[in-house]
Fold these 2 entries.
Entry 1:
Amino acid sequence: PFVHASKKTPIRWRLQTYAGPALAEHVIKPQIDAFNKIASGDMVIELYNADQLVPTPELFRAMQRGTIDAVQSDDDSIAAPVDVAVFAAYFPFATRYSLDVPTLFNHYGLNEIWQEAYSEVKGVTWLGAGAWDPCNFATKQPIRSLADLKGKRVFTFPTGGKFMQRFGVVPVTLPWEDVEVALQTGELDGIAWSGITEDYTVGWADVTKYYLTNNINGAWVGSYFANSDKWEQVPEHLKTLFKVTMDSSNYYRQHWYWWGEAHYRTKGGKLELTTIPEEEWAQVEAEAIKYWDEIAATSPRCAKVVQILKDYTETMKKAGKPYRYA
Amino acid sequence: MSYEMIALLMCTTLMVLLLTGQRVFGAVGFVGAAASLLLWGDGGSEMPFNASMVLLNWFPLLTLPLFIFMGYMLSESGIANDLYKMFHVWMGPLNGGLAIGTVVLMVAISAMNGLSVAGMAIGTSIALPEMLKRGYDKKMITGVIQAGSSLGIMVPPSIVLVLYGMIARQPVSQLWLAGVFPGLLLAVLFIGYIVVRCKLNPALGPSLSFEERSSISRREKIALLRAGIVPIAIVFMVTGLFMLGVTSLVESSAVGAAAAMIAAMAKGRLSRPVLDASLHKTLSVSCMFMWIILAALCYGAVFDGLGAVHAIEILFLEKWGLSPWGVLIMMQVSYIIMGMFLDDTAMLVIVAPLYIPLIIALGFNPIWYGVLYTVTCQIAYMTPPFGYNLFLMKAMAPKEVTLVDIYGSIVPFVTLMVIGLGLIITFPQIALYLPELYFPK
Amino acid sequence: MFKALVTYTKYVDALNRLVGKVAMYLMFVMMFILLYASFSRSMLNSPVVWAVEMAQFTMAAYYLLGGGYSVILRGHVRMDVLYSTWSPKTRAIIDALTSFFLLFYLGMLLYGGISSTAYSLEYGQKNYSAWAPPLSPIKIIMVVGIVLMILQCVSRLIKDISKFMGVDMLKTYGDVMP
Ligand code: NA
Ligand code: NA
């Protein structure tokens, strides 16, 4: 903004991401810069960070009304009014590796299910999903057993939070940008919002001390959405360009998080690693399968997704190493 | 219309509307709402209400009504009367001693509440009449009370630092610690000024007469020191428990409100009319702040959407070619000028988000910057035409204090604050010593 | 017509006084929720999931429902550099004229509020949290608060115009309006 584009009036989009500035620098900004560069004045996307123009909980609504043209977020955070939103972000133990996400969407039929779900909501078009990082706990006190989780106030996603309540975790939801401060002022004991890469990138590693290596999900599922009318007004070649840059962003996140998880665990220097023994953690995994069945009972479409997740897990187990080691 | 034009239009329209005397929130809200329509058409029509959802999610704001109520409870509870009596008796024998005692009283009140209203109420109702009765220079003492009560936003707990922390995303615990020494420094500057003035001209602050002094026995003097116990207990329960991590920030404000109420009850002063008056004032002041923040959030979001952060950076660094220190001083000067005309809450919500990213990018410490900002707020409270302490002083001062006295009284104290600001800029350790001691990097 | 307007101000003022006096006590509700949360966490070692959210909802109700009453209490600051130099009549007419801007803002606030509330009802929107309470109740309360604010500002507008036209304020409205 404040810089004049070329004389022909470009298509202007306001895209708001769920991510704060430090994270947006990696997960979206390069994509938008590339898009604007290639679109060379035919279309300009202005990027806004978490809560910058619209508070995240109102984001879906804002996109539907056209206050915002496009959104990068998970369906859960923006409270998308579709039944499958529950599977977005971190559905407990749904994925193990970040490659699981594109595999599930492209080869196991989730793309079609998501398209169908969003076709029932007026005004918003779902453009596609990609993988982010795993979900681990970073805390001020060490977590070495399930008992240590009891009573901890943890910043996390609603779905994951609801699930972890079964183990005594007290889920807290705050505007993303307030988390670092809340950890310092005593409103929070920890976070279960990301893997270690983001903990270091956004500064949470400076205000927590321990990192639990057991994760409750291997890869966050996030999506791109657009206001339907605005999307329809975009010419075909720019639609394709946008989708291609979506994939370039999806690709960058694949290797950045994969690199970061190993790098910061071994060379980060700020967080001490702790682990809950496999046998004990298996209780959480077993509980998650019960949770899956509860969610499957909420709608036929959810049942379909849960079945796909089960089939997928089964296939991975059968395939053996390197897909599964036990 | 270009983005620069819209930004310029927003600022000038706001200025004109404010000059008409329309309520600040109405003026700010209108410009924000109209600009979002102009900029984004129908899509912008929900920006004003979106701001209310932002406000809903801003948990630190919960401290605002609770700290305000706490302040009113304290001024009604009579704690201040006992404290004043203590300082009166102990400091009275000195030339200007009652004024010095008032500054110390203001520091104590500041340690128990987060704004300047309680200090103003206590200063004008208790200290001012006593000093006028004893022939103190009215211009000097009106200044003392205005400047002294403004320490309420610097000495922890501080609502201004909570708001700053919310906008700058900085931990309130560190900001509060950072405010301790600057608050004391300013108090020392005020006292130094009083001492020097009264030394040169003892008629400005006559010492207590021998008769009055000898009417109080040594035993009574010692007994008066007990007035300090309750305030110390309250400071511990609010700021102490929060710093120790026992209470969270918002809980500490609830503890403070409850503690002040209990103190008033224990003194037998929690009558129905007192409670009713405190609740009314709390609602009135909280609504004023909340509605201004609501309006300013919309204005600020539109401003942000125009890319104003980037524009400020280009203006300061590229067009004017300022050095980092030049930028910092420029910002403080702009705050002081804006603070004359604008409500400081609106100033914070609209302007601070533009400045803070640049401050951090230039390598300055945002905690220290919060303290600098707070000093400029203190100045803004006192400088005409728009200043909360000025308004309060006009409303609460006894008849013999004229408007000319009030305006004249602020000159030396604003000068002292600017000197204090200069000292804190030159020696950042004044602010940063405590936070770095308790939160080592 | 004039009589109807006077009646309007009487009813609206009375309504806002009533709602405001109730809203005023919400401060205690916030206080108790937070004290309970603090006690439950530090003494009973069982943190309360809903405490801060509930306190935030209460605060939204507090300042929005109390908005109209705060106008009656003249709680909203103005920049009075020129304002304080004008005669009461001049103030009244300028206030009446500029209240167009105020009402425009409040109107947009209401428009957004209604649309957002309708959405929350249509889609059963829940707060973004594990507690996940429905958002429509608090949004409805917020909209009511905005409506009360608009009603009060219109009441004030009627009084400002009356004052400018030389109506005996004390006799007609029981209000001197400094
Ligand atoms: Na204070
Ligand atoms: Na001022």
Note: DSSP finds seven helices and no strands in chain C.
Entry 2:
Amino acid sequence: MPKKIVVVEDEPNITEAISFILSRDGWEVSTHANGETAAEAVRAAAPDAVVLDVMLPGRSGYEILQDLRADPEFAALPVLMLTARGQKKDRDLADRLGATRFMTKPFSNAEMLKALREIAGDLD
Amino acid sequence: MAVSGLTGSRIRERRSAIGLRQADLARAVGISPAYLNLIEHNRRRIGGKLLVDLARELSVEPTQLSEGAEAAVLSQLRDAAARLSGAAAGQAAPELDRAEELVGRLPGWAGLVNAQARRISELERLVETLSDRLTHDPQLAASLHEMLSSVTAIRSAASILTETRDIDPDWQARFLRNVREESQRLSDSAEGLVAYLDTGGDMTERPLSPADELAAFIEAAGYHFAPLEEPRGGEAEIEALLETADTLRDPGAIAMARDMLGRYLADARAMQAGPFATSRTATDDPGRLAEAFGVGPDAVLRRIASLTGADSGLVACDGSGTLTLRKPIAGFSLPRFGAACPLWPLYRALVRPSQPVSALVEMPGRVGRRFLCHAICMPRATTGFSAPMVFEATMLILPAPDAGGPADPVGSTCRICPREGCAARREPSIMGDQG
């Protein structure tokens, strides 16, 4: 059974590229672009991993992560944070809020696949 | 030759240097040779017209003869030393006690030190502004974010296109379209960013704040604007002055200068130069002049300053004590950045709104220069009964004879003030045991 992943990202062309490579890699991908409803969407999908962008309309990725981590059911969910800012304070904040991995844009497709395989365990 | 800090000695040195006889110089400025002799031996203090006449005959600037110039250069040198104190570890400290010697013997080098110190503070402020801008500029942040998003999408799509061997033609077309779209967006945002940074490039040419530009504008004019003294002077003359002022470049500074000139115009209309001069021969009391012309005492102080050239200085401050108007006068050193001496009558007036303050003050120095200061604090136009009142204090600074009676000791600003045991001191001085 394919593993499920939710991509929370508001740039349509980035979403499309990520979805494409993840699907080819065997993931079952669903996407979400709105920050305000993202936490809800993740809960409903109950995925095996999440790709979460920081800059989203409505709510930031940090706030969404905080929500998810506050819920025991999602406290251990693998989350890959994506941001266009790679400063130390951004990294530290992501760490503190419980991000599983942190990746700065632009990233290579191979890097992203590798990171997701590592944090979500090998695919069947 | 011993270096003397006194005006008389300097006149004598200069006269000998150009080979002029005492009697000839005395005749040229209309005084007796005996009197000139007293002056040259520092037995008579001079200033005003006589100093100007002597300077003209000796072909030097009056300030080169007066102590004011030396005091100003000295205080700038001390300020320069204060700014870098501690920064130059492992290097001999500047000989503060020999600053006068430097000014006397090597005025050119002293001037260079001061010019460099000024440039350094300007550049420091520029760096601060720029780093603030990089950290906090929302437009810059948004623009960079946009570019990074495009680059991310392009990189990802390009890699899909090149690395996916059996890619479906529909998908291929889709990613090609994405690449085209995102490259267009990337080039637009890059252009926008370049245009934005290009405009910002002007900043290197105007490192000063609008307040500093305004101060430079007022100083260059000596707080006297001839076109506004004409009976027909009005808004058009104000705009012409603003346009021709090369010290004013920042739009904020221009707006501030427009307000300042508007007020100047109102003062000049209410107190026309001719009648005002006539009234001043009858009384020099700012309060009486205010009554005679039906204006506020602060307007009278400004008006006197605007009509008396180098013989007066003027400062104004807002409720926070920040200087908002500054016309310098030789010997009364106005700090360029930061706060001034809290003992200035200006600040005494600030805490007692509407009550005039007149005081004889003395600046520190071997021969303390004395000034008669008139100050008053008035409310500025308010916006209503419920709004907080906004006050402004104004101080006129007039030279006073050096002898006779007690004077309040004041300074320029704490860092370069030698006065010990001053109750108003807010930070230590770099001047050590001087004064």
Note: The longest strand of chain B covers residues 370-379.
